[in-house]
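Handout, page 2. Input:
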Amino acid sequence: MPIDDHPFDALEKQFQMEDLSVSPVGRALLAIAEKLPLDWPLDKAVESLKNHLAGDSLERMRLMLETCMNEVRKYDAEIRQLRERITNAEWQLREETLRGLVLDAARKAESTRAAERVKRIGLILANAAIELNPTDGDEVEEMMRVAMELSDRDIEFLRDLIKIQGSLLQTQQHVPRFQAYKSWEYGPWGKKIDTQIDSVFSKLESYGLVARIAPPNNLNISADFQNRYVLLKKGARFAALIQEAATGRG
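Output:
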C-alpha cells in the first residue's frame, strides 16, 4: 500500500511540525522515526532499532509503537476497504488526528512503568485508527489515559463484569438496575463480601467505566452486604479498544 494511502503515513510529517527543541518526547520519537522506512508497517524499522534504543523511556515508546504496528498489520484488508469507502478529505482528517495521537501515545508510554499498560496504549491507538467511524481524538486520549492507570487485576475484574452484563448493553444504552443487581451474583465473586472487590470496582467507577448500584430499599441499615456494580458504555468501549485481534486476520 503506498505511503499516502495509510492512516499512519503522516508520522514523519508530525515530527517536522513539532517544536522538537522543547519536546524531549518529540526528540526521542524523531530519533526513532529517522530509522523508519518510508512505508508502513514498522516491523522492519523496529527490528533495526533494538540495538540503538537507550533508556527505559525510549524502550517504552518502542514497545508502544511496535504493539500498535503489529495490531494494525492484522487489518490490512480492512484498511484497504476503509480507504475505498471514505473521501480524501475524510482520510486527511483521520491522518491529522492520528498525528497528534501518536505523539500523545508516546508521551503516555514514556511515563508509564508497566509494560502491559504501555501495550494497551498501543492497542487503543491501533484499534481507533482502523475503525470505520471517524477517529475521535478526545475519546482516544481519554482511553489511553485510563490505560495508564489500570492494572492487570483491574482489567480482569472489568472483563468479568462484561461477561455477565456486556450482552445487556448491545441492544440498549444502559443495563436496567434490577438486571444489573441480579446478574452481579453470576460473576466469579458470587455473593461473598470482599473488600478487594470494592477497591477494584471503586477505582473502575472513578474512571467512569462502571457505576455502583444503590442497595435495595428494604435492606436493613445494620445489614452487612457487598456493593454491586453495573457496567457502563464507556467500560465496554474501553475493553473493546484494548482487545487484540486474532493472529492472521486481514
